[in-house]
From TrEMBL:
GO terms for biological process: regulation of DNA-templated transcription. Keywords: Hydrolase, Transcription, Transcription regulation. SUPFAM superfamilies: alpha/beta-Hydrolases (SSF53474), C-terminal effector domain of the bipartite response regulators (SSF46894). It comes from Lentibacillus salicampi. This is Alpha/beta hydrolase. Pfam families: Abhydrolase_1. Coiled coil: none annotated.
């Protein structure tokens, strides 16, 4: 059928039952063509007339000169309904065509549209993740230089299981797809107003998902039910995205049952109850999710001191009650016994007094965080004290980088890593921390730095670069506390440089 400069390839199939009046309109997904419905057609025809067609730019339908958009495809649907004089009908839309189905139900709604079925149609999808999936597919096609590898990947995911017959139908369809048209349409068309669009649907709506669909899992559609006025969600067992291929009879039967219930009893008597249930359930789920949100604590230690909780700077009386020292210790250790903390911070005090001081200090530390967050971060019982959440510090990161540098396989790579680390370390690491535990930690760090500096001095000496050798030899002596052997080497090196 011609529409302006485009041609739409369609089939209208009369029902096997002469008493039938309703028509099913089948809309295929983005990539397949109308042949993707072949397995289910015999079951649909038992109870309905069937109209199926190739979207413009897919299968045997030609796109025409006009840019293919969601609005244009929705207008094509309305055009076919009018031209073919379709009476009562039900739209069954798969994948991308769910956008067409929803837009038709809201913008072109007429009394003849009785129900809407959305089969694995991601009309509501998390925005950031959706954009990521779109970008990854674009980059994959650009990298491969062809649309075929992407089609191959999608087809393998979309069937459960993938048989030779299914693959033949789908590959034939994908081979005719224009990459440009595919990516013009492959996006979240309702990204900014999905809830509003779905809430405008007046007709009973069925959401179908495949139990084995890993890309658009059933959880996605179950969670989106709250946005519809009148919807059901069924999960087809042993089926993936192409459920009409994986389970054609079951898919057709469940759609028929839904249509029968929806048209026999318009509206649901428990609609108010369902809305209240959905609202309260998702409110509680959101609250639980908020409470269980991972707390992220970031502590700067190496060069000065600062604390960030979930990206927000935490100001407080860090200089009182050993708050700074306790937080740093727990950040590095994640947890500690109360006696361990008493030994570290009140070593010269009797245990009873030390435990009392610890209790006061922990209360002060909790109070600092309570001013910026309702979610507790510091926990303790009779024996242990620990931080809850994701903790990190620049010192931990630096120590990990040192460990990785030590593991470099070649002297050349090790030298590059060591030099970068030494140039990034502050002149006075771990300032203001004078407890023995921190002094031991600083000594351990400086020993590592000294080892790296000496390695670099030796490395540059082998390369006959005496000036750089001199710089790192001086640094090694600083870290090794004036080691006489190193001083002797330094004197010899300086004399050599003076004598030329």
């Amino acid at each position: 059928m011609r529409r302006d400069d485009a041609s739409i390839h369609y089939r209208f199939i009369d029902s096997d039952n002469p008493a039938v009046t309703d028509t099913l309109i089948l809309l295929h997904g983005l990539g397949p063509d109308m042949n993707s419905w072949n397995f289910a057609l015999p079951f649909f025809r038992q109870n309905y007339h069937v109209l199926l067609y190739d979207l413009r730019g897919f299968g045997e339908s030609h796109a025409g000169e006009e840019k293919v958009t969601l609005s244009l495809l929705t207008e094509d649907l309305a055009f076919l309904i009018q031209e073919l004089n379709i009476g009562n009908y039900h739209v069954i839309a798969q994948g991308f065509s769910g956008f067409i189905g929803v837009k038709h139900a809201t913008d072109h709604h007429d009394d003849n549209l009785l129900t809407l079925t959305l089969m694995t149609a991601p009309v509501y999808f998390p925005k950031q993740l959706g954009n990521k999936v779109i970008q990854e597919r674009k980059e994959f096609v650009e990298r491969e230089g062809s649309f075929y590898p992407l089609a191959n990947q999608i087809i393998k995911q979309n069937c459960y299981p993938l048989t030779e017959e299914k693959a033949s139908i789908l590959f034939h369809a994908y081979n005719q797809v224009s990459t440009q048209v595919y990516f013009e349409l492959f996006r979240n068309h309702f990204a900014d107003n999905a809830a509003e669009q779905l809430n405008r649907i007046q007709v009973p709506t069925l959401l179908l998902s495949g139990a084995e669909d890993d890309v658009y899992p059933p959880e996605l559609f179950g969670a989106s039910l709250q946005f519809y006025r009148n919807a059901r969600h069924y999960t087809i067992p042993n089926a993936s995205f192409m459920m009409q291929m994986d389970q054609p009879k079951l898919t057709a039967d469940w759609i028929h049952q839904f249509i029968g219930k929806s048209t026999a009893q318009p509206g649901y008597t428990n609609d108010t109850y369902r809305q209240a249930l959905n609202t309260e359930m998702y409110t509680e789920m959101y609250e639980l999710s908020r409470q269980n949100k991972v707390t992220k604590l970031d502590v700067t230690i190496l060069d000065g001191f600062s604390v960030y909780l979930n990206g927000q700077r935490v100001h407080g009386l860090w200089g009182k009650r050993k708050a700074k020292q306790l937080l740093i210790y727990l950040t590095l250790q994640q947890s500690a016994t109360r006696e361990e903390l008493c030994d570290a911070f009140w070593p010269d005090t009797d245990l009873k007094s030390a435990k009392n001081s610890l209790r006061v200090a922990l209360h002060h530390l909790k109070k600092i965080f309570a001013e910026v967050s309702k979610t507790p971060i510091l926990y303790g019982d009779k024996e242990f004290v620990f931080l809850q959440g994701e903790t990190k510090s620049d010192l931990q990161d630096f120590m990990k980088e040192i460990a990785l540098a030590h593991q470099q396989e070649s002297d050349e790579l090790r030298a590059v890593a060591y030099e970068q680390l030494i140039r990034n370390v502050p002149t006075n690491p771990l300032p203001g921390l004078y407890e023995e535990w921190f002094l031991d930690l600083r000594e351990h760090l400086e020993k590592d730095l000294g080892t790296m500096a000496l390695f670099l001095a030796d490395n540059y000496e082998k390369q006959h670069d005496d000036h750089k050798c001199l710089d790192f030899m001086k640094l090694a002596i600083d870290y090794y506390s004036d080691d006489p052997h190193l001083i002797e080497r330094l004197d010899a090196l300086e004399r050599r440089l003076i004598s030329g």
